[in-house]
Amino acid sequence: MRARNAIILFCFASLSLACSTAVAQSDQDNQPHITPRKAPPEPTPKPKPKPTPVPQDDQPRLEGTPEASPQAPRESSSKDSQVDFNGAPLAKEPAPAPEPEEGTFTRYNPHQAEKDIEVGNYYLRHKNYRAALERFNSALINKPKDAEATFGLAVTQEKLDLLSQAYKNYEGYLKILDAGPHAKECQEAIKRLGPHVDVRKDDIRKDSKRQAERDIDVGETYLSVNKFQAAQERFQEALLLEPENPVAVYRMAQSLRGLRHLDSAKRFYQKYLELAPKGTFAADAKKAVSEIDSINR
Questions:
Q1: DSSP state, 56?
Q2: Does residue 219 fall inside a structural domain?
């Protein structure tokens, strides 16, 4: 009897324990998880391939810019031109012109001299004497000792009351063509101007020299601050008084180059080299002519 009761009690206890375990398991499944489940790991990104650096010799560079880094290659330019950082095409740099030998700056331009004479005569007829004076002087630079340009210059100088210079150029015409079409006019002008020039010749020469020096000083002041137009006007005044003044000729060339009148500037550089082939500015004048030739090619 006791054995049977013990068996029944053991079975009842086992059944109660099984029921409590089931209830506890059911409650645990209904509870929220406190610790979130771990998300699956993200795939590791593959490293991007580095661009192949362009060889240093193939990278386009502008003069004065730092060398490009091999980690940041630039796109190659076209075969015929280079492109700067702003996208503007740059023409190929011309090869430097060979240094001209001394004594080769006698390359004149007779065709341009004919044009200058034609335009100078036009200005003379319309009484624009300053413009005519510049044109006749330019003609004599392109073709020295041209009779027509010399006569036109003499007439213009007389109109501007530059009597001693006009007298000199009337005589110069007769030396070139003593029987030319304007010979009679020149002879009459020499007789007409002779008395005035004889009286004022020494004073005019001294005053002209002093005034030319003042004009050069003022012109150089303008040139030092890149006021090229004002400088050119003062050097022109100096050349009216002293056409063969080497300093005025050289400074006129610099002013014209600053104004981008390269052909005229070149003629004045060459004129300086004729007047002073071993002068103070001879080397600079040769270099300037070479640079202008390189630009015009």
A1: G
A2: yes
In a domain, 8, yes or no: no
Angle between the N-to-C axes of helices 163-176 and 183-224, in degrees from 0 to 180, rounded to the nearest 10: 130
3-state secondary structure of 89: strand
Q: What is the DSSP letter of 124?
A: H
- Residuewise pLDDT in 10s, the chain (297 residues): 666 766 777 766 666 666 555 545 545 445 544 444 455 555 555 555 555 554 444 443 333 333 433 444 343 333 333 333 344 343 343 444 444 443 334 456 888 889 999 999 999 999 999 889 888 988 888 888 899 999 999 999 899 888 878 888 999 999 999 899 999 999 999 999 888 776 555 555 667 788 888 889 989 988 988 999 989 988 988 888 888 899 999 999 999 999 999 999 999 999 999 999 999 999 999 999 999 999 887
Query: Does residue 68 sit within a domain?
Result: no
Flag whether 193 is in a domain: yes
